[in-house]
Every structure is written in C-alpha cells, then in structure tokens.
Specification:
353 residues; TIM Barrel; nine-stranded parallel β-sheet; two-stranded antiparallel ribbon; 12 helices
C-alpha cells in the first residue's frame, strides 16, 4: 500500500462524531456490509418480478373497469386450463385453409375464394336443436383479461356456451384455440367508443368517433388479427354509433366483407348496421339481456328467468354474462335447472339470423 493510501486510511479511522464514542472505520467491513445490502435488494427485485402477474390478476379481479394491456405478441405462450369434465367433440383447429390472409398485424379472416365459404359458417359449432324447445344462446364476454377468471369459466361452463375473448387478452390466440379444442364456439369483443368514454377505457386500439378513417381502419385490422377461428364480433352495449355509423362505416364494411357475424349487446341494435348486414345477407342479431348488469345474485337469477320467458315467446333468446365468480355461480345453478323448462342451450351462431 502507498504512503498516501496509508495516510488516508489513518485519517478515516480517526474520524470522530461529536457526542458519540470513537468507532474505528474498517473499509473491508464497510464493503462487506454494502455487498449484503446489494444482495438483499436483488432478492427483493426477483421476488417482486415473480409476483407481478399474481398482483395484476388480483387487482384486475377487483376493478369495476379493467385496465387493458395492448401488445403485439411475438410468440404464443402455452396455456394450461383445467376443463369441465365433459364428453365433447373438439372443433377443428383454426385458421382453416383458404379462410385467411396475411395482414400487417397478423392473419385476417376472409371468405374462401373457391366456394365463398364465410368464416361465420366455417367456425360455428355444429348444433342439432331439439324440436319443440326454445333456444337460448349464452355468451361469456370479456374473456382473457384475467387469467384466474378465465380459468373459472373454462372449469365451470359446458361446451354449448359460447366464449367471446377480448382482443387485448395477453394470450388471446392460445385461449381461443384451447376453447375450440374443448368444443366452445368463439367470438371476439370489438372495442368501440361508448357513452361512458372517459370513465371507462376501451383501450388504445378502440374504434373512436373522432379518430380518422385511416386510424379506425388500421385499428380494425389489428383487432381482427388477434385470434383465429372466431365466428364474429360482439359490439358493446352502450357504443355511440347506434344512430350514425358514418365514422365506422369502414369498420362495418370490413366485418361484413370478411364474412363475420355481428351481434350487439344492446337489444335495440343499430338500424344502419342491421340494414347493411341485411343488404349483404350477413349474420346479424341483437342480445336480449346482460345477465349480470347488476352484480347481485338475486338480480342475475331474475334476469335468467326473464331470458327463459323471452325465449319461450320468440323461440330464441341471447344472454350475456361476464366472468365474475358470482355470475358463474348463478349461471351454473341456472343451467342445472333447465331440464324441465322447455328451453335448450345453443351456441350463439345457432340463433343469429
């Protein structure tokens, strides 16, 4: 050690703080303590990283308006979901030959050139209705945003129930394929600006009224490429385009031109979208009830009773639920009670006009 270094160490070791006893300074001990602090920091950082998904799921389940994650996945992660025990026939893997094209953001559904087959018809679940029984289509929307809630849905509901996935789901493609493999017909939620825009966030790829036509067109292509094998899209209950589709004409044209079904959660529907679909003989329909509009078990049960009556009156009805634990509990009890009620569950495509 040089003379200067020895002198510096002697000066450090002789430092005295007024009011405290003189404590010799040891550089090796200081470095050892510093290393210990760094080690504890690294351990904490690793622990926090491993807890990220768990914390995200925990808070997502408690939020009234969920935060959506927008990302362009490079690789589909493996998904493991415990299924309800049921003897069902899997739906074919998607996309099917001739029913897709490569787009800027991924594969997009198209009509098949050789025979004009629409994705709506190709991907729907085969269904033979029981004569004399009204049909009820039950659709779970907002799937994929919470892994815990999505697993509960897969575990709880039979394959005749249709699943509609959020395009923002981090594993939307993998979950969609898994749903088809377990016999569920799948659809996709289409995020549009709603009347509560500002209070609820439809995500950064939503279709907005004040966006340019080019932006809405680009967002539409991004949304439609998020998963494969879906029969159509679900429009939110309170979207703002019901009376005027000028700002989303490009969106409606894409949906109809690509052979997809359109179902609106609002039972009043959108006259212009309905007329456009009718003109092109495209599948279009509106829902009857959002079962868990109020997250109350008694209210949900009353809505299921109203859904039954609507089906018995019209021959069919469409109901929507969200993947809330309470909603699933009431839904399971209702499904178990259907045997003697003169109604039958059906996939959504079976009741869409």
């Amino acid at each position: 050690m040089s003379d200067a270094a020895v002198q510096n160490e002697d000066e450090l070791s002789s430092i005295k703080v007024p009011g405290y006893a003189s404590v010799p300074f040891s550089l090796p001990a200081f470095l050892q303590g510093l290393a210990g602090v760094v080690f504890l920091f690294i351990v904490f950082a690793v622990w926090a990283f491993l807890r990220t998904d768990e914390a995200y799921e925990h808070h997502q389940d408690k939020l009234a308006s969920k935060t959506v994650i927008v990302e362009k996945p490079v690789e589909i992660a493996a998904v493991e979901v415990e299924m309800i025990e049921e003897d069902v026939e899997s739906l074919p893997a998607a996309p099917m030959d001739g029913l897709y094209e490569d787009g800027e953001f991924g594969m997009l559904p198209v009509l098949r050139d050789s025979d004009g087959l629409k994705p709506f018809d190709a991907y729907k679940k085969p269904f033979e209705p029981v004569q004399g029984r009204a049909m009820i289509a039950l659709v779970v929307v907002d799937l994929g945003l919470s892994e815990k809630s999505t697993q509960n849905v897969f575990r709880s509901l039979p394959s005749v129930v249709s699943f509609s996935f959020s395009p923002y789901a981090r594993k939307a493609e993998a979950l969609g394929q898994l749903a088809r493999a377990s016999g569920h017909e799948i659809w996709m939620d289409l995020p549009l600006e709603t009347e509560t825009f500002g209070e609820s966030d439809p995500g950064s790829r939503a279709i907005l009224r004040n966006a340019s036509l080019e932006q809405n067109a680009a967002h539409t292509l991004w949304l439609l490429s998020r998963l494969q094998g879906y029969s159509g899209v679900i429009l939110p209950e309170n979207h703002i385009f019901r009376s005027d589709i000028t700002d989303i004409k490009v969106v409606v044209d894409e949906l109809i031109g690509r052979g997809l079904g359109i179902v609106e959660m609002n039972e009043l529907g959108s006259p212009e979208i309905s007329a456009r679909a009718y003109q092109d003989e495209s599948p279009y329909d509106v829902g009857d009830f959002i079962m868990d509009y109020e997250l109350n078990s008694r209210r949900i049960a009353q809505n299921f009773k109203a859904l039954e009556l609507r089906a018995l009156k019209n021959g069919k009805a469409i109901g929507f639920i969200h993947p809330h634990p309470l909603s699933l509990q009431v839904t399971k009890r209702w499904i178990d009670s259907l045997e003697d009620k003169g109604v039958q569950l059906a996939p959504l495509s079976a009741v869409v006009k």
